[in-house]
Amino acid sequence: MEELTTCAYELDADLRIIWVDARWSEFAIANHAPELASPPWPLGQSALACVADSTSAMLYERLFQRVLRTRTSIALPFRCDAPARRRYLNLVIEPRTPAGLRVETTLTRTEERPAVALLEPNAPRGGDLLRMCGWCKSVDVAGRWCEVEDAVAEMRMFERGCLPPVTHGICPQCKERVSRELEAM
Questions:
Q1: Which residues contact 71 (CB under 8 A, 6 or more apart)?
Q2: Could you read off the pLDDT of 37-95 as tens digits, one per residue?
C-alpha cells in the first residue's frame, strides 16, 4: 500500500499557483504529469491549466470561486486511479489570509487491482469517445455509470483493435454531491 500523503499548494486570488509543497513533484509524477514535476513547477500559471480535462477544470473553478466568495472551506472526496490501483483522495480548499486559496489533496487509501489498460495514459487510442467521471472514475456505459473494470468487460474492450479515447465528465451522483457543496451557504 502507498504511504498516505498530502500534497498542498497555494493560489492567489486570480487562481495562479504561487507556492507548492515538497510533495508536489511526487504527486505530479504519480498522476502522469512529469512536465509539472520540476522547478519552476507551474508557479505563476493558472491552476486550472494543470487540470487535464475541461469538465474537471470547470468544477474546480466553481469550487475555487465559491471559497473565495464565501471565505468558507470545502472538503470533497474524489478518486485518481492508476491502472493497477484505486486511489481515494480527499480535497480540501481553504481561504488564505488576506486573499487566495490553500489546496490540499490527501491520499486516504488505495486498493490494488489487476491493471486496467484503459487507464494507461500512453495506450494507443481510436474510435468513439468513452466518458469517465472526473471525480469517481466510473464509466458511462449506455447511460449507466459503473466501475472501470465492469465497463471494460461489458464493452468487450479487449476484443477491439485499440482502446477508445477517454473524455471526462461527471456522473449524476458526483454532480449532485459537488452541486450540494457549491450551493451550501
A1: 95
A2: 887 778 999 999 988 778 788 889 999 999 999 999 999 999 988 889 999 999 999 99
| CATH number of 173's domain | 3.30.450.20
Name which of 10, 58, 6 is nearest 178 in CA terms.
58
Mean pLDDT within 126-133: 89
16 beta partners: 46
Strand order across the 85-95 sheet: 17-20, 6-11, 101-112, 85-95, 74-79
Q: Taking the model in full, what pTM does it have?
A: 0.80
Res 1: pLDDT: 42
C-alpha cell at 78: 474524489
Lookup result for grid cell 489570509 = 97
| Percent share of the chain, pLDDT over 70 | 96
pLDDT at 3: 61
Domain range holding 44? 6-183
Q: How many domains would you assign to the chain?
A: 1
Q: Other CB atoms closer than 10 Å to residue 49's CB: what's the count?
A: 12
1 falls within a domain? no
Flag whether 148 is in a domain: yes
- Whether 114 maps to a domain, the answer reads yes
**Rounded CA separation 105/74 (Å):** 12
Distances (CA, A) of 152 to 44, 57, 76, 159: 39, 26, 27, 10
Examine residue 55 and state whether it is found in any structural domain, yes or no: yes
